[in-house]
Design a protein that fits this description.
Radius of gyration: 14 Å
Strand content: 25-35%
Oligomer: single chain
Number of domains: 1
Number of helices: 5
Number of strands: 7
Structural class: alpha/beta
Order of helices and strands: EHEHEEHEHEEH
Distance between the termini: 12 Å
Length: 153
């Protein structure tokens, strides 16, 4: 079974919860691991030679999470076999602006350890920073899980 890592840097548990939803949605087809970047290192991911990577990105101060972007840059420094498929989603409690996610997209486009980036991404609005997600979020998440399943084939 192909390996997929799902990483997050959840502060209030929102990104972690959605990451676990993704894991549930993919576990029948893939060997899935979910963890916080605070608990793992890029080397932990590299040793698994993952086929896919899903990145949960918090929007912090109107920008994608710098700690996640740094983790991805560090992954790029230690990886020897490129990751075939990468997708990402974001959580936020702000009025959505497309530029919020620009930092993550730029990071993924300039590293050499990724073969293909999912052309779509998911943004999930929280009612407040501590959550929960807005009412229509579950349908959006399930739809994006289906998109990612198709992309990962």
């Amino acid at each position: 079974m192909k390996k997929i890592w799902i990483i997050h840097n959840s502060k209030y548990g929102n990104s972690e919860k959605i990451a676990k939803q993704f894991a549930e949605g993919l576990k029948e087809s893939y060997d899935v691991s979910v963890d916080s970047i605070k608990n793992i290192s890029p080397e932990d991911i590299v040793k698994d030679e993952p086929y896919g990577l899903i990145i949960a990105v918090r929007i912090v101060a109107f920008s994608s999470d710098k700690e996640v972007r740094t983790f991805i840059n560090n992954l790029d420094k230690v990886i020897t076999k490129p990751i075939s498929k990468v997708a990402y989603f974001s959580t936020h409690a702000l009025g959505w602006k497309k530029f919020f996610i620009k930092g993550m997209k730029k990071t993924l486009e300039k590293i050499g350890c990724v073969e293909e980036i999912c052309p779509e991404f998911l943004e999930v609005k929280m009612q407040k920073p501590e959550g929960p997600a807005v009412e229509e979020a579950d349908a959006k998440i399930e739809k994006f899980i289906s998109t990612v399943k198709e992309f990962m084939k």
